[in-house]
């Protein structure tokens, strides 16, 4: 599945380079018309990120997301600064289809594991962002500022006891770079964790990357910058994904 992605800073669509708030590009698009076009083309779900909320919980952009959800009946998954059960309930009350949990999956892992049980595994996506060094997939949190001693594999094992289903895995070195995804990473984790529906994120720059990721076995691809900069169209991406056996 192709999942278009939009990051928001102060209500505007933006892309960060490797998560750096100081290295950002704003995109002047008619968001609501853009979303309507995506739905008409056959997109089933869209990924939204609250960069303000990720940095400071008091600056969450709930009103923006409420307006987006009300303007389309497309399924929406939202991440960025989700730290409490109240945060989750607020997003579900807005009509969000899935919530994306990042740093809390490491800092508050027992509570997050309980959320999987309470809300169901199809409602929660774990966003696990990794630095791959000597094939060790170390997870980073807090907007990628802090590297932890937790590995991707150990973290998935921990949450799999509550039927974890969706994992959004990003190779930090690739995010926002258009340098191509880490295909070997996805091949390895798909092979190891057959029960997980992986969402690949980071580095997609052309349709060859879409083909390679489909062949890696991931369930979905998060695509942001490439679509925003019209390196290929959503129609081309969807057709490419469907045609790879």
From TrEMBL:
One Pfam family, short name: His_biosynth
EC number: 5.3.1.16
Localization: Cytoplasm
Catalytic activities: 1-(5-phospho-beta-D-ribosyl)-5-[(5-phospho-beta-D-ribosylamino)methylideneamino]imidazole-4-carboxamide = 5-[(5-phospho-1-deoxy-D-ribulos-1-ylimino)methylamino]-1-(5-phospho-beta-D-ribosyl)imidazole-4-carboxamide
Pathway in which the depicted protein is active: Amino-acid biosynthesis; L-histidine biosynthesis; L-histidine from 5-phospho-alpha-D-ribose 1-diphosphate: step 4/9
UniProt GO molecular function: 1-(5-phosphoribosyl)-5-[(5-phosphoribosylamino)methylideneamino]imidazole-4-carboxamide isomerase activity
Keywords from the UniProt entry: Amino-acid biosynthesis, Cytoplasm, Histidine biosynthesis, Isomerase
InterPro entries per the UniProt record, alphabetical: Aldolase_TIM, His_biosynth, HisA/PriA, HisA_bact_arch, Isoase_HisA-like, RibuloseP-bd_barrel
Record's GO cellular component terms: cytoplasm
EC class (word): isomerase
CDD domains (alphabetical): HisA
Active site, renumbered: 7 (proton acceptor), 129 (proton donor)
Organism domain of life: Bacteria
Main location: cytoplasm
Any one GO BP annotation for this protein: L-histidine biosynthetic process
NCBIfam families with a match to the protein in the record: 1-(5-phosphoribosyl)-5-[(5-phosphoribosylamino)methylideneamino]imidazole-4-carboxamide isomerase
UniProt record similarity statement: Belongs to the HisA/HisF family.
Protein name: 1-(5-phosphoribosyl)-5-[(5-phosphoribosylamino)methylideneamino] imidazole-4-carboxamide isomerase
Native organism: Buchnera aphidicola (Aphis gossypii)
Lineage of the organism: Bacteria, Pseudomonadati, Pseudomonadota, Gammaproteobacteria, Enterobacterales
Gene name linked to the record: hisA
